[in-house]
């Protein structure tokens, strides 16, 4: 039995897509112009005009030490290369930036109006809310001359230590004292360049037995004594005295007892059975053994048994009587007797000439 059925072959109905409305231009509530978008509820132009990238005082002051050129920065005195660096930093540290500024680029253009007044043009470019903004401003920076803490201390006679230059068992020569003073000055300059602001000589006094040098830095004083020992030999000891109390803390001053070597260049000493003319006496003694003209050296701590015979400045003139292969005959300048002594190396004087000899209890030696 055949039966006819109505069959729906059209399938499910498609959903009708609604067209989105085309956005209309917005109206800026500030200026009334049409805009395709708002930034902080105003158009881009109004936002750019109203947004303040930075603030800068019209007049600023920079504290600069007239002696050393230091600048008072962040509650302390600091060194800078030149005055324009100080001017630029003063303007920069007083700028107030907006927190929304990104990709900031700043230009500083200082121009001196006088030695103590600078005009600074500041320009800044930054991104804010995706908009590139630009602003420039001008400030006046006045230089205030003021002595820094270290220069004030120096002018006030401040010192932390005393270097006492003396010599062991003798009086130092004027030349040695002068050399020590030069070493002290050079070392202080070097330590100052390394950042020790107290590396300066407050005062110095010279007298018969040596010199006293008052210094601003204990640390620099140690460097000074080390340098003197390296170049001239000797030893140093430190002692401390209470100078006062500051903020509940005791303040001590250091005395550096600097002792130059007992022997100096030109001295003649008796050591280890040898008569030695001293050529150098720094960390070790070096000299010439007058018995055979050989080089002699020993550590400075071994000199406690050395006997001082005099200095080559005490040498006397004597007549050379004859020259042999390994010896020479001279006329003793005191007894006028002919004596035979060791011929020095590289001796080239001829008979009849006058030569310098040094008389000792151990014989006469040609220099």
Mean pLDDT: 86
Sheet having the most strands: 5 strands, mixed
Rounded to an integer, what's the Rg over CA atoms?
43 Å
Structural class: alpha+beta
**Total count of helical runs of at least 4 residues:** 5
- Number-wise, the strands total 25
* Principal-axis shape: elongated
Q: Beta-strand percentage?
A: 35-45%
Low-confidence stretches: 1-12
> What share of the residues lie within helices?
10-25%
Helix-strand pattern, N to C?
A: EEHEEEEHEEEEHEHEEHEEEEEEEEEEEE
The number of domains: 4
Strand order of the largest sheet: 12-13-11-15-14
How far from one another are the termini? 157 Å
How does the SSE layout of this entry go?
Layout: E1 26-27, E2 34-35, H1 44-50, E3 54-55, E4 59-64, E5 71-73, E6 76-78, H2 83-93, E7 96-97, E8 102-114, E9 117-128, E10 131-145, H3 149-155, E11 161-167, H4 174-193, E12 201-207, E13 210-215, H5 218-232, E14 235-246, E15 249-260, E16 267-271, E17 274-281, E18 284-289, E19 294-299, E20 307-311, E21 316-323, E22 327-331, E23 338-342, E24 354-360, E25 363-366
Parallel strand pairs: 4-10, 11-15
Antiparallel strand pairs: 1-2, 3-7, 5-6, 8-9, 9-10, 11-13, 12-13, 14-15, 16-17, 16-20, 17-18, 18-19, 21-22, 21-24, 22-23, 24-25
Helix pairs in contact: 4-5
């Amino acid at each position: 039995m055949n039966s006819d059925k109505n069959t729906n072959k059209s399938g499910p109905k498609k959903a009708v897509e609604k067209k989105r409305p085309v956005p209309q231009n917005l109206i800026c509530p500030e200026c009334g112009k049409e805009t395709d978008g708002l930034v902080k509820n105003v158009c881009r132009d109004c936002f750019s005009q109203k947004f303040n990238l930075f603030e800068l005082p019209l007049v600023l002051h920079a504290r600069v030490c007239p002696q050393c050129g230091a600048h008072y920065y962040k509650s302390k005195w600091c060194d800078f290369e030149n005055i324009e660096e100080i001017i630029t930093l003063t303007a920069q540290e007083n700028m107030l930036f907006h927190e929304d500024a990104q990709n900031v680029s700043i230009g500083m253009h200082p121009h001196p109006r006088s030695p103590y007044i600078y005009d600074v043009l500041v320009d800044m470019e930054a991104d804010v809310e995706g908009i590139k903004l630009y602003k420039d401003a001008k400030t006046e920076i006045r230089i205030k001359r003021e002595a820094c803490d270290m220069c004030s201390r120096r002018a006030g006679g401040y010192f932390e230590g005393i270097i006492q230059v003396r010599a062991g068992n003798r009086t130092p020569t004027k030349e040695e004292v002068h050399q020590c003073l030069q070493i002290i000055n050079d070392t202080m300059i070097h330590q100052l360049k390394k950042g020790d602001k107290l590396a300066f000589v407050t005062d110095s006094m010279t007298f018969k037995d040596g010199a006293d040098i008052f210094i601003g830095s204990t640390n620099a004083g140690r460097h000074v004594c080390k340098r003197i020992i390296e170049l001239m030999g000797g030893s140093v000891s430190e002692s401390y005295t209470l100078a006062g109390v500051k903020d509940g803390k005791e303040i001590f001053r250091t005395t550096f007892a600097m002792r130059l070597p007992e022997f100096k260049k030109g001295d003649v000493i008796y050591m280890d059975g040898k008569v030695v003319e001293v050529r150098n006496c720094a960390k070790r003694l070096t000299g010439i053994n007058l018995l055979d003209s050989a080089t002699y050296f020993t550590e400075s701590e071994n000199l406690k048994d050395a006997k001082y015979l005099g200095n080559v400045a005490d040498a006397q003139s004597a007549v050379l009587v004859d020259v042999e292969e390994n010896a020479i005959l001279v006329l003793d300048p005191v007894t006028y007797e002919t004596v035979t002594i060791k011929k020095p190396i590289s001796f080239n004087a001829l008979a009849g000439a006058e030569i310098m000899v040094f008389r000792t209890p151990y014989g006469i030696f040609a220099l």
